[in-house]
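Input structure tokens:
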């Protein structure tokens, strides 16, 4: 699992996406030859394969049918970016934090008791805040409220149990 992020001049980071298995990264730089637009960091142990730009363009020349896969990947990421921009403009802080936590649950979670997802991976409030585009303090208040409402159990450090349906309701606010 990879976190895709951008960093400001002051070093603050904003997570743009969480990517799961068998995904590609760096495709924009491969296509246009410009510097990368974001960085990635592993959230778990990963096995990555480097492909040079020369090998990439040679592969596309030999297998033009791969263009469709790349276009579909870029289109899906653009749609996700559009959804994220709309969420940051129109959704409440609670909904944005819920969306971010659901992404972690989707990529890093495992089935728990019925209707629940267990996230064993350590998540920081700063990561959630960066992904949701909110202040860390807002994440702290939101998580505390969800703990009281039993939407969440456990902790970000030791493992979190998420009541998936209730969190999805919060994301739809």
């Amino acid at each position: 699992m990879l976190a895709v992020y951008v960093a400001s001049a002051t070093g603050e980071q904003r997570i743009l996406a969480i990517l799961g298995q068998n995904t590609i990264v760096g495709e924009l730089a491969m296509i246009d030859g410009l510097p990368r637009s974001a960085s990635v960091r592993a959230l778990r142990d990963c096995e990555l394969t480097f492909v040079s730009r020369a090998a990439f363009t040679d592969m596309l020349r030999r297998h033009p049918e791969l263009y469709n896969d790349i276009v579909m990947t870029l289109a899906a990421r653009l749609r996700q970016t559009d959804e994220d921009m709309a969420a940051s403009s129109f959704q409440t802080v609670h909904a944005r934090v819920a969306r971010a936590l659901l992404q972690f649950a989707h990529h890093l979670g495992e089935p728990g008791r019925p209707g629940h997802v267990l996230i064993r991976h350590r998540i920081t409030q700063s990561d959630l805040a960066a992904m949701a585009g909110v202040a860390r303090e807002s994440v702290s208040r939101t998580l505390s409220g969800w703990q009281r409402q039993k939407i969440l159990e456990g902790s970000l450090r030791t493992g979190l149990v998420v009541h998936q349906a209730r969190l999805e309701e919060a994301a739809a606010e």
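The chain has a mean pLDDT of 90. The chain has two domains: 2-89, 92-171.
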